[in-house]
Amino acid sequence: MSSDHVDVDWDHARATNRANWDDRVPIHEGAYAIDALADTDHRSDVVREDLPALTPWLPNGSLDGLDVCHLQCHIGTDTVSLAREGARLTGVDFSPAALASASGLASRLGLDVAWVETDVLDARAAVTGDFDVVYTSIGTICWLPDLDRWAAQVAGLLRPGGVFFIRDGHPALYALDEDADELVTRYRYFPDGTAQQWDDAGTYAGDGTVANTRTFEWPHPLSEIVNALLGAGLRLRRLDEGRTLPWRFSPRMVETGTGSWAWPEHDRDRIPTTYTIVATRD
Ligand SMILES: C[S@@+](CC[C@H](N)C(=O)[O-])C[C@H]1O[C@@H](n2cnc3c(N)ncnc32)[C@H](O)[C@@H]1O
């Protein structure tokens, strides 16, 4: 269930979202393919897909030896996958439950990762040091009301010459009706500063239910995302749009590979499912 155009104070929205994300952790611990990470060659599906888009922009084409800050790291499956590429990782999230889970995972795998509990909109002040790469992927900025403030954190965390990478659900996808029999819009594409409020006991992975069902999200068109990064002084290097997604946005989506879903073939070229941006700091 959702209601739109909700005028909500950020402190209240953030606390509400955090309670919901804390509740999702035990469900996701059972649903994410965590055991597979015991194999040192294994990478999460998200990181496996992101690496070929990211590494061409890195010195020597590799994460090896680089300092990487992973924003909104959740339970750490992507974070440890990046660490396995030889990078020194700092994982950032506002959910203490997610960070406890992520930290436990890294310890079990023998990986040394720094974890920082903070609102990502305050990340620059909360995180020590600066970074060759700032990475964030899949299910991130829809939780944030203010992309200018977000982009300022990203730029502030990067060293000169550093690389920012994001892949996420495409804002045009988020405007679609997930329950419809065809591609029709249901939600607004353009922002007006107000939130979309959701009440949902489920989550995108696993069958469990959460006690704190309410969340707040904000729509961000592609232009707003790009302009926020440009406004923070970053240089846009690459913008791509994809046809697959690492979660099942709609029951109509079909599985196209491990951890990968897409619209049925006749709809696949009609609308993007993801965007990927690479930007650098001069
Ligand atoms: C869908 S997960 C993203 C990660 C990753 N793709 C994954 O599935 O592991 C979203 C994460 O964003 C975090 N989050 C949401 N709002 C945040 C905020 N304002 N500051 C920091 N973290 C936030 C949540 O706690 C959650 O761990």
From TrEMBL:
SUPFAM superfamilies: S-adenosyl-L-methionine-dependent methyltransferases. Keywords: Methyltransferase, Transferase. Residues 71-164 form the Methyltransferase type domain. Transmembrane segments: none annotated. Pfam families: Methyltransf_12. CDD domains: AdoMet_MTases. One of its GO terms (biological process) is methylation. GO terms for molecular function: methyltransferase activity. This is Methyltransferase domain-containing protein. It comes from Curtobacterium aurantiacum.
